[in-house]
Design brief:
CATH topology of chain B: TIM Barrel
Number of strands of chain B: 10
CATH topology of chain A: Ubiquitin-like (UB roll)
Helix content of chain A: 10-25%
Distance between the termini of chain A: 44 Å
Shape of chain A: globular
Oligomer: heterodimer
Strand content of chain A: 35-45%
Strand order of the largest sheet of chain A: 2-1-5-3-4
Number of domains of chain B: 1
Order of helices and strands of chain A: EEHEEE
Strand content of chain B: 15-25%
Largest sheet of chain B: 5 strands, parallel
Order of helices and strands of chain B: EEEHEEHEHEHEHEHEHH
Shape of chain B: globular
Number of strands of chain A: 5
Structural class of chain A: mainly beta
Radius of gyration of chain A: 12 Å
Chain lengths: ~70, ~260
């Protein structure tokens, strides 16, 4: 894992593989089928860019989705 | 009857919008949404619990129903803008029910923060539907920055107290340039009918349906009430009078002289 990176996902540290993208992270989290919304370091990530957005060491990610509300 | 509700150029047949919160189960939510006949439902945006990923609410929504993401949980304009941006980037519609609510006790919206966020979101290309107190002056300010509809509350969220600020909402209806959608505080279908009768363009109902003994049956009742209220508005209600006016001849058969 020497080339791996540590990212923070929803407030929790997680080791990510080298070359991990937003898309592969979601798959590894078991969210591949979910309609996940992703914020990276305070900026929203466009869905079209999930596959090309590579994670970097120390990235802070928020993974969200639509939930029940009024 | 061809009488669509038009918001930002989009035609909606139903004048009832429902929320997806507070249901006992997602199946009950789905059944109520179907029974309501609504075409637009609100959703919030929340973090996924990565330890326990359950099914998404969106999996239960029927075909043909569009999502209206809200900015619930925002205590400031910045937080509301952040949620709207996240929702749109992730593929949700660019329509947003804008809520800026600093204090959870009465859940009343912050007019200054709402106006600030509305202006920013409209500039960024969002279709903005702000949730506000029934304030006709604020309504004009929100219209002037480009909001697509204004959503005044009837009474505090979940309170079920009905139209407590009726006269302010009547002023809003009278001077509206974009649709007025009464949102929050309705308990009974008669409250919804009253809103449509006084000229509101639509209502948004959540708690009154979700917490009913039979949510789908209550959703159906609200659907009927909204249709009745709108039909009455178009039919033209009579003026109130101080004194009686007979509906039958007063004389009867007795000869009076």
């Amino acid at each position: 894992m020497s080339d791996g990176v540590i990212v923070i996902v929803n407030g929790r540290e997680r080791a990510a593989a080298p070359g991990e993208t937003v898309e592969s992270l979601l798959e590894n989290l078991g969210l591949g089928a979910q309609f996940a919304l992703v914020e990276r370091n305070g900026q929203p990530v466009d869905r079209a860019r999930y596959g090309e957005t590579r994670l970097e060491d120390g990235d802070r990610l928020v993974v969200a989705r639509p939930v029940a509300g009024g | 009857m061809d009488d669509p509700l038009v918001i930002a150029g989009r035609e909606l047949r139903s004048r009832l919008i429902t929320g997806t919160g507070k249901y006992r189960s997602p199946e009950a939510m789905r059944d109520a949404v179907i029974a309501s006949g609504c075409e637009l439902v609100t959703v919030a945006v929340g973090r996924i619990d990565l330890d326990q990923v359950d099914e998404a609410i969106t999996d239960y929504l029927p075909e043909g129903v569009s999502l209206l993401p809200n900015t619930a949980g925002s205590a400031s304009a910045d937080e509301a803008v952040r949620i709207a941006r996240l929702a749109r980037a992730g593929g949700l519609p660019d329509w947003v029910k804008l809520e800026v609510i600093p204090d959870p006790r009465y859940l009343l919206p912050d007019p200054v923060g709402t106006l600030e966020a509305a202006e920013r979101l409209v500039e960024e290309g969002f279709t903005v539907l702000p949730y506000v107190l029934p304030d006709p002056v604020l309504q004009k300010r929100l219209e002037s920055v480009g909001c697509a509809a204004i959503m005044p509350l009837a009474s505090p969220i979940g309170s079920g107290r009905g139209l407590k600020l009726r006269h302010a909402i009547e002023i809003m209806v009278e001077q509206a340039e974009v649709p007025v959608i009464v949102d929050a505080g309705l308990r009974a279908p008669s409250h919804a009918a009253e809103c449509l009768e006084l000229g509101a363009d639509a209502v948004l109902v959540n708690t009154a349906i979700a917490r009913a003994d039979d949510p789908a049956a209550m959703a159906h009742a609200f659907r009927l009430a909204v249709e009745a209220g709108r039909a009455a508005r178009l039919a033209g209600l009579i003026e109130e009078r101080e004194t009686a006016e007979p509906s039958s001849p007063l004389g009867g058969l007795a000869a009076r002289s």
